[in-house]
Amino acid sequence: MTSSQAALSFISIPSFSPSASPELDEIFQSFRDRIFIPDSLSPQHRHLVYRPKNKTVLTNERGVTVAISEDEEVRLQPQDHSDRPNKQVVFVNIPKLLAETNDDTAWRNTLPFVQGLNRSKVKIPRLFPVRVIRAATKAGKSRHIIRLFEQPDTTGWGLQQHSLVSAFFRGSHDRAVDAGFRGAETDAVARDVEQVARLLERQDHRNGLHKIRNSTEKAVDSRLSIIVMSVLLEMAAATALNQHGAKDVDGKVASYLTKTLMLAENGIEDGTSTFIWCDEGGKNQIGQHQERSTLRILQTALGMAAKVDGLPDSQQQEAFDSCVKAVEKRLEDLDNDLKKRFEERATPELNFEA
Length: 354
Description:
Blueprint: E1 5-6, H1 22-40, H2 43-50, H3 55-59, E2 65-67, E3 73-75, H4 87-100, H5 104-108, H6 110-119, H7 128-139, H8 142-150, H9 152-155, H10 162-178, H11 183-200, H12 203-206, H13 226-243, H14 252-263, H15 285-305, H16 317-346
Parallel strand pairs: 1-2
Antiparallel strand pairs: 2-3
Helix pairs in contact: 1-6, 4-7, 7-8, 7-10, 8-11, 10-11, 10-13, 11-13, 13-14, 13-15, 15-16
């Protein structure tokens, strides 16, 4: 390298704003310096960075700088692949650190961070996005997750990945429960879930083209998810009860109730519903826990809808009553199964051998 500055067409490298969480700032910056920038370099510059024999070229007084934007140049430094952040630790810590901060700047940094992960093809743990979503919905930071959903081409967070959708709607439900389905928090949750429902209609979320790197999750149409429709129903009912004197002024409650009853028409009572999607191995204990959680949210949604004037209407009444009974029966069976497992675990094995 004879020139101290290398010409390079500008590439999109995430930048992060200083936040109130120095731990998160350090993590994000380390990914930028150790992964995002090196991965965006030309092959020639990557050889300079990673080959030990080039160390003197980079560390001499002149060095090598690269323009990564109109306003920023970086001086290349010798690196080793072992210097990269410990992703196993970092992906556990990030959701915890986000949960501990109320700083919107820290939360805004998640968008460029996820975009950087996607561009650099970083393999991430399956539960990392779910944990970030849970932290956001619990902290009232759902809008920052919605920004990730709005740009699936750069984030990989396409909504055909039901684990993302389920985490968002379950977390939104929990947030509304904590608020007693009243007040400004509930109004915000109602707006958030409606916004994501509109995103579910977009073709780029339905064609399955954009997904998280190394994800093996099967693409589904999340509009047909009982958890999605149940939360939309309960939040529409909450809006009617809180703001419109129990009147379904825009017809949303009736519409969501009709769709919910259609999805729940078959398979609820015996646990074979096509539209309750759980993790793989859905009949294991984790799958049963998810099914139980979904059914309790459905139960809440039906109960809230019934408080709205005129609902269920005469055309919905029979299906409504049938659904309520099926949910109660399935929850009873799941609870009995759980109780039986606990009893079996608590009963010591008797050894009759002499």
